[in-house]
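Long-time lurker. I teach an intro course on protein structure, and each term I like to show students one example going from raw sequence to a predicted 3D structure in token notation. This year I'd like something fresh instead of my usual example. Would anyone be willing to generate the tokens for the chain below so I can use it in lecture? Attribution to the forum is fine with me.
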Amino acid sequence: MSTRILVVDDEESNLKVLDRLLGKAGYAVSTASSGPQALDVLRADQPELVLTDLKMPGMDGLELLKAVRTVTPTTEVILMTAYGTVEIAVEAMREGAYDFITKPLNRHDVLRSVRKAEEKAQLVAENRQLRQQVEAQRNATGPLGTTVGRSEAFRSVLETLKQVAPSEATVLVMGESGTGKELLARAIHNLSDRSKGPLIRVNCAAIPENLFESELFGYEKGAFTGAAGRKPGRFELADGGTLFLDEVGEMSLAMQVKLLRVLQEGEFERVGGTKTVAVDVRLVAATNRDLERMVAERKFREDLYYRLNVIPLRVPPLRDRYDDVPLLAAHFLRVYAEKNRKGVRGITDDALEALQAYRWPGNVRELENTVERAVVLCKGDHIGVADLPGHMQPEGSGNARKLVFAIGTPLREMEDLAIRETLRYTGGDKKLAARLLGIAARTIYRKLEDKTGGEGDED
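-- Reply from a regular --
Happy to contribute to a lecture. Here you go:
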């Protein structure tokens, strides 16, 4: 389809010359002899380019330029004038003109300027189309974001999620590490009436206990050394929205009491303050711990557990949703192929079979890491078995070894060996090892410390 150009000039002879010149060059040309007439054509035809005279009675070229930017912002404008001063050129460019050419017009200069403006218009159109495609893909997943799955187990979770999200009820998302609990918390927020409000995340395992209260509730100036001014806490930041407490099972008993009060009364005091702060917050909590067992062991308050467990949402591990492995792998492949600018387009049948045969102790997060690694290392356009970690390959490659324990081996010795072998596999990365083992990172630190000189603490 020919690029459409609107030529505007109050001199009839110039219109005829440009109409003939641009028409022979293959453009679809329309003409106007005044600014108001040009606006009528602009609204009707929405041309890609406007070539306009600067000095015209009534509405001049600069005024028309400003109107074009309002009516059809993507249309490129080239100004023509016999009064080619630097000041006029600067003003025209500042108002958004693509180019500035002087009269008497030179055929070569006109076509060169028009072609360059045409290239820019096409590039802008392509970028706009790409953004629309990205937006369409985002809208296709909708408020569920990047949650991917078609298995019966996962569809059941999503159905429950869609039902409870519009409510104000507290939701407790339970599941092993790496199953995507945070994604589901985001989906709950996005599907709720609070979606336009903030979603504030707190990782209860990552905040030191002595800072936890000030992080949740904020503090007043002078509350402690270094408190130079008032700072709002996560509850205040989440006012009108959703607060996501991740790894809530790691919270100390002292903090559990204070959290319970906020859930019951909807108010609190900042650290070092006396003024009561009221907030309107919907709480979503997540844990990979067995909170019922922790309640029985008096490591988690029973009253808080029932406050959090109003709507339980249990996320199945990846080993119970093998039907989702191909979908998830394809999703991560697209993400990381684009991110790493790799031409990887798919996964071979053998590699996909190996992925589905693996038990995924690190769940979706481990699958994501595996696909990213395979995309980076892949030398062809399809991920093959050789691109997978050795312990996932059918015959194995010695990258990981099977642990065999004799009957009667003490549990603590098996735990210690499992931790150390996983650390060897991850190259010493304790956070990754913790995810693969389905435990908190600080549990690894604690058990290693116990091994070097303290009494162990069963987790």
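Some talking points for your students: Residues 133-141, 396-400, 454-459 have pLDDT under 50 and may be disordered. The chain has four domains: 4-136, 152-316, 319-392, 411-453.
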